[in-house]
Fold this protein.
Amino acid sequence: MTDPQTALLDALAPAPPSGQGPRLYVADTDLAEGASVALPAPQAHYLRSVMRRGPGDTVVLFNGRDGEWQAAIETLSKTGATVLCRACLRPQPEGEANGPWLLFAPLKRGPVDLLAEKATELGAARLQPVVTRFTTAARVNATRLRSLTIEAAEQCRRLSVPDMADPMPLARLGDGWPADRTLFVLAERGEAPPAAAAFAAHAGAPAALLVGPEGGFADSELDGLRHLPFVTFVRLGPRVLRAETAAIAGLTLWQALAGDWR
Amino acid sequence: MTDPQTALLDALAPAPPSGQGPRLYVADTDLAEGASVALPAPQAHYLRSVMRRGPGDTVVLFNGRDGEWQAAIETLSKTGATVLCRACLRPQPEGEANGPWLLFAPLKRGPVDLLAEKATELGAARLQPVVTRFTTAARVNATRLRSLTIEAAEQCRRLSVPDMADPMPLARLGDGWPADRTLFVLAERGEAPPAAAAFAAHAGAPAALLVGPEGGFADSELDGLRHLPFVTFVRLGPRVLRAETAAIAGLTLWQALAGDWR
């Protein structure tokens, strides 16, 4: 895997200019006026060597709970930095925590990285790998995907990072599933109704989208899904979409017709 | 750039199994019952060495005009192949030629490759690079993008390949623009109405989507766009999407609410 720090730097270097300074996710730190926040070496390196910032310059912090904060760099060295929270720029948006879940069969590295990055931009609240019979990728590198979701959240001005759940077998999907959360299965083909209408009919309700593996679901898996009371099959147009395209298209449609793009 | 043949093989190798055989785009050949079609060396190599096919095996052909044809391999060698058209599987779908146009500022290689591939899957009829003031990529490799759109069309069972237009300056956009084709500018921020409602109001009409560069449009460019009679600004949710994400999301919404996913 790519070193998380290198990945962070690669991804952040071409960031569009922000009037408020570089954005940093500080997971385990409470943010409040006057709070002093310690940043670890990778974030300090990013501020110093990539963004060329120094003491007195402003940065923007978020932790997924306390909204978006403007902060000033107090000390900055190779080994770390301290920044002082000054003012809350935005409260924590409610919509993000209520975002759709994305369930997906593990994919090869390129497509799954894309899926994680775009799902973050599109406001997915949770990423849940699901192992199916025809899943081609051997495993999910949760550490790399977690790092990609953090970078994507920092870039797209999101104030939270999607939960990255541990992989689970498809057959266990019914165990403990929240009864009020509809699971939309993005069907590759067949007689399922168009996703747009189905999504619009569930506007504002909890939802999850399930994207199958490149090889499709096994017939027995489709039968199993059909028998789950919270499952609805939907269709994404006449062409055969790659798994990651279906995930991106599904999240887009959900957000536009039922989620926080409305 | 990647050798087109290598790119073709890389992209096609993991294709999902098709009951009808490998799909090949044959641009310059008319397809009809009994027609004999000559395939060049790269397609012959793909059939022989990647897909392990031989004489008598079936392939599927399309050329963007005559629908989808089942054909049988007659001869197959390193230097070429001949296949015989047997039966029309599907007529040419009208929706594809009427698909949305995608206008985009040239991007770096990774994002622009992604954009070309996904725009094909999502049914864009034309890809038009547009050079803006803050465009970061120096040029567009039309040959590579063309090759990517062909591979994507073959994979997604589309029966056409998007037109790949030559780059043009943004300031020339008004010259000869078809008056009945609405150009939706996917605005990064601001007071534009949500794309979903705007698209639904134009269902079935000719449309184009314009995605700006990573650095955004210059103020003078936005002013220029606002004065064009065929331009409508729309917004894609509360987060800042990368250019390629905006393109994919915009095409998805258009197809679902106004295009051939309905």
Remarks:
- The domain at 4-92 of chain B is CATH 2.40.240.20 (Ribosomal Protein L25; Chain P).
- The two ends of chain B are 38 Å apart (CA to CA).
- The first strand of chain B starts at residue 23 and ends at 25.
- Residues 61 and 77 of chain B are 18 Å apart (CA to CA).
